[in-house]
Design goal:
The strands form two sheets. Strands 1, 2, 3, 6, 8, 9, 10, 11 and 15 form a nine-stranded mixed β-sheet that branches. Helices cover about 10% and strands about 40% of the residues. It has about 240 residues and is mainly β. The protein starts with a helix and ends with a strand. The chain has a single domain, classed as Sandwich (Jelly Rolls), CATH 2.60.120. The N terminus is likely disordered.
Length: about 240
């Protein structure tokens, strides 16, 4: 049976996301991602700024830990940027099950097709993500994606649109049996509310956030260089509430 235009588009989107999720797969161990000399204090927590000598996932990026990659502004907000071609990732303290909450001040509706803003929690056996990107497609309107992982296996994912203005409140409530993902805009409109039966978190569970380059493929790849000036991502604050027994 021939596919309709909408069916073909959906199949292409699924294939694209499957590829990018493999590129964004967790590192072999949580400890590997936590290597970094630089730390910063933000929202009451100490964060490690990831650094690599070579390229590493997600997206085969180089990762930098300079103040141009990550710093806390005078108003207390976190400023993230891709500087000198190097992406940025922050790893928070050990937490465990509970509710992770970020308030993103940047207008994610304007995210570049080849940039990714990610807010997530990761342990040795699981990961839960909310990401904002167009995954290489300038015409993509649903810039939001939620994803659930068990080790390197993607359990579930979904797209969602973000029609409203910033700031955006992103919450991931990770429980032993299920995870709930929610996103609200400045008007308190709920643009995402998804619950999924998730995997166990394992050890070394911590909150993370990153801003990185999606490489694309072939002639559809990005044209960024180490001299490209990227707009910063501003995250106003973060909080964590431990799961009550």
């Amino acid at each position: 049976m021939p596919r309709t235009g909408c069916q073909t588009l959906w199949v292409l989107r699924l294939a694209l996301l499957a590829t990018l999720m493999l590129m964004a797969a967790p590192l072999p161990s949580a400890a590997a991602a936590e290597r970094g000399d630089r730390q910063l204090r933000w929202s009451g927590y100490t964060w490690v700024v990831r650094a690599t000598k070579g390229r590493a996932n997600p997206g085969n990026n180089r990762w930098g830990d300079t103040r141009w990659n990550a710093r806390v502004r005078r108003d207390g907000a976190l400023r993230l940027n891709i500087s000198n071609g190097k992406a940025v990732e922050l790893i928070g303290p050990p937490t465990g099950y509970g509710t992770y909450r970020w308030v993103v001040q940047t207008d994610v509706r304007r995210v570049d097709p080849f940039r990714v803003i990610a807010l997530f929690a990761r342990g040795t056996t699981g990961e839960q993500d909310v990401e904002f990107s167009r995954w290489g497609d300038p015409g993509e309107t649903s810039v939001g994606t939620w994803v659930s992982w068990r080790r390197r296996t993607r359990l579930a994912f979904g797209f969602f649109a973000v029609p409203g203005p910033p700031p955006y409140t992103v919450q991931i409530t990770w429980r032993p049996q299920r995870t709930r993902y929610t996103v609200r805009d400045a008007n308190r409109r709920l643009v995402l509310d998804q619950t999924y039966a998730s995997s166990r978190a394992g050890r070394h569970v911590s909150p993370r956030l990153s801003y990185w380059i999606y490489p694309g493929h072939g002639s559809f790849g990005n044209r960024f260089t180490s001299k490209t000036k990227h707009p910063p991502v501003i995250v106003r604050d973060f909080s964590f509430s431990r799961l009550r027994r």
